[in-house]
Amino acid sequence: MRGGLWQLGQSITRRLGQSDKKTIARRCYASEADLKKTVLYDFHIANGGKMVPFAGWSMPIQYKDSIMESTVNCRENGSLFDVSHMCGLSLRGKDCVPFLEKLVVADVAGLAPGTGSLTVFTNEKGGAIDDSVITKVTDDHIYLVVNAGCRDKDLAHIEEHMKAFKAKGGDVSWHIYDERSLLALQVTILEKSQGKVRLTGLGARDSLRLEAGLCLYGNDMEQHTTPVEAGLTWAIGKRRRAEGGFLGAEVILKQIADGPSIRRVGLFSAGPPARSHSEIQNENGENIGEVTSGGFSPCLKKNIGMGYVKSGLHKPGTKVNIVIRGKAYEGSVTKMPFVPTKYYKPT
Amino acid sequence: MALRIWASSTANALRLSSATRPHFSPLSRCFSSVLEGLKYANSHEWVKHEGSVATIGITDHAQDHLGEVVFVELPEIGGSVTKATGFGAVESVKATSDVNSPISGEVVEVNSKLSATPGLINSSPYEDGWMIKVKPSNPSELDCLMGAKDYTKFCEEEDAAH
């Protein structure tokens, strides 16, 4: 997870790029020329973007300002991100909602048109195939975005279930938006921020999502992690908890009833920032879990991290030790998000 | 390329900026300062040999690539360091990097200011941001290191390769 100074800039690529182990293996043999470029590649270069390989794409990790400045500016004013490496698709048809509800834990039927939610695609064992943001455009049109590194497996998964669904007479079809490119704009108040919204790269994006307590798929959530363990029980709609009907529902509903054996928690710690795979110990030095993401928070100016610990030791305020390069540093379990998210909620 | 044009016009409309670094123009980033009189390792550490003591730190080029340093791990005084082997680490927002010793010897002093002010490595890599002082056990190791001119060339070549 770390290299010498001569590998500068590579570490984060590796850390961020963990979302797809296969891509990483491939990347080791792939030359820069094999990386895919978004339509904004030249625009990034012209604006001083420092390009790095990420999930098979050449993406800007930062522009001319530092990750620290960039992160803080996003919260104070705003950021424009090129997220066109991610995969956007639409599901259409009068049965698109019941179809999607077989694959994700969200109460899609209960979403008002024009609103969205974070959700999780689950497998038969209740583990997460990917996390995704879904938007209900209308009752017969859902738009969703999945991770770049999970694209192939997600699309294969959706396609397989769509074939079976249609064979039984269900009305659903999809469209993958490869002819378009996706941008993300995150702002506070546009008037105040005019002239201060900046192009923002993967580096700040990782700091921002960590401060917001959001999982990075591949680091904080994997095939074997259930949404309950990941602290995403809130994303399982009330009706879905009562009815089930999604892949792995038996496992997940049992975990909601009995409590999971491990839980994702937020961590503050002293010393060097905890990084993924740092061991978490209790005060007696016994192993209780592992850090999955960590770094220095540009907004809080201190170390933050997240990881999984045994249930019972997950309560905010629980004292822990985090082992970094063989030394134990004091830390404590804390609530997430670390920085208030201030999501826009239409009134 | 329609999207690119759209993005450019949106960027103009929002008066988007990619921001400017206060201290580095894009050009100067490629030519970080390299001081005469110091010796440099290809792992981007410098060493300044004065009398019986050699001071070690990381170069301006290294700190520029790392970004803001948020934590510095230093060895104990009295311990030994070995040429081309890690003696500590610097943590930036984005990454952890090992710091190698350009020469072998005994650690006689560490820069304790770095624990409270790790940013000294960014603001003053060759002066206030020094990391350790070493009593060299084999001063001839210094001869294998690069001078300022060679190191400048080395950085340019390395940047070009990326």
TrEMBL record, chain A:
InterPro entries: GcvT/YgfZ/DmdA, GcvT/YgfZ_C, GcvT_C, GCVT_N, TrmE/GcvT-like. It is an enzyme of class 2 (transferase). Transmembrane segments: none annotated. Residues 40-173, 181-238 form the GCVT N-terminal domain. It catalyses: N(6)-[(R)-S(8)-aminomethyldihydrolipoyl]-L-lysyl-[protein] + (6S)-5,6,7,8-tetrahydrofolate = N(6)-[(R)-dihydrolipoyl]-L-lysyl-[protein] + (6R)-5,10-methylene-5,6,7,8-tetrahydrofolate + NH4(+). Residues 264-339 form the Aminomethyltransferase C-terminal domain. The keyword Transferase applies. Its EC number is 2.1.2.10. It is found in: Mitochondrion. Pfam families: GCV_T, GCV_T_C. The keyword Transit peptide applies. It comes from the Eukaryota. GO terms for molecular function: aminomethyltransferase activity; transaminase activity. Keywords: Aminotransferase, Mitochondrion, Transferase, Transit peptide. Belongs to the GcvT family. The glycine cleavage system is composed of four proteins: P, T, L and H. This is Aminomethyltransferase, mitochondrial. The lineage of its organism: Eukaryota, Viridiplantae, Streptophyta, Embryophyta, Tracheophyta.
Automatic annotation (TrEMBL), chain B:
PROSITE patterns: BIOTINYL_LIPOYL, LIPOYL. One of its GO terms (biological process) is glycine decarboxylation via glycine cleavage system. Binds 1 lipoyl cofactor covalently. Keywords: Lipoyl, Mitochondrion, Transit peptide. Pfam families: GCV_H. GO terms for cellular component: glycine cleavage complex; mitochondrion. The keyword Ribonucleoprotein does not apply. Gene3D superfamilies: 2.40.50.100. Its cofactor is (R)-lipoate. It is found in: Mitochondrion. It comes from the Eukaryota. InterPro entries: 2-oxoA_DH_lipoyl-BS (IPR003016), Biotin_lipoyl (IPR000089), GCV_H (IPR002930), GCV_H/Fam206 (IPR033753), GCV_H_sub (IPR017453), Single_hybrid_motif (IPR011053). Residues 53-135 form the Lipoyl-binding domain. Transmembrane segments: none annotated. The modification N6-lipoyllysine is found at residue 94. Belongs to the GcvH family. The glycine cleavage system catalyzes the degradation of glycine. The H protein shuttles the methylamine group of glycine from the P protein to the T protein. The glycine cleavage system is composed of four proteins: P, T, L and H. This is Glycine cleavage system H protein. It comes from Mikania micrantha (bitter vine).
